[in-house]
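Hey, quick one: can you model this chain's 3D structure?
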Amino acid sequence: MALKIKRKKYKTGIVLSGGGTRGFAHLGVLQALNENGIYPEIISGVSAGAIAGALYCDGKKPHEILNILTKHKIYNYLELRLPTHGLVEMAGFEKKLKDNLEAKSFEDLKLPLMVFAADMNNATLVKFDKGDLVNAVKASSSIPVLFPPVKIGDTLYSDGGIIENFPIEPLENICQEIIGVNVNPIGYEKSLPNLFKLAERTFHIIIRTRIIERKDDCSMFIEPKNLDNYSLMNLSNAKEVYKLGYDEAINVLKEKNKLKK
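Sure thing. Here's the predicted structure for all 261 residues.
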């Protein structure tokens, strides 16, 4: 008797890593994929990947999202505050999302989205795919110390990347193909001139091991080169970062097509 193969729910899913303003590379990757007839049907994202994913799943084109997010300088998104739980408040960022997202909840999105945040009370990773969209995205991208945790119910949430910066598992049993995008490559670093650079480098080394372990589980893995030359919190290079994502995706697609022949 022939074995029945269960068809997976989605043809293509995509994982979008965290990475601060390096996340503009996600938009370049999505643009390149779309131009080549590849349209992810579901997104799993964390931090910067959650922001790009929310706007994309809302029906916006990658180049539109780039324009939306670069309309103002970084300080327009942030407000200085007394350092109790965070150095700056994300009030401007929250307003930007509310003003530009048609969807108010995950259920309103045109494509399904999963975003992840770290439950700081219970030290666990939590998936958000239902209910209030803006608060979940804000929680997923709230970098500890820099931004205060986001309170949802009785729980405090911070950037999900501190636990899992490449949330591929939720897609594995529901997608025929998974595209993985990591915007945190690690190249040679000649010097670490200050505490922030040292902390940033340490974080990337820790999460890098996990991503390398999972990259072979992707049908296509895209990691734009030279992104490590760009700061995590600098909007001024957004278009350059977008282009790095676009160019790397085009290169990976060309290589993949060569292998098919």
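One thing worth noting: The radius of gyration is 18 Å.
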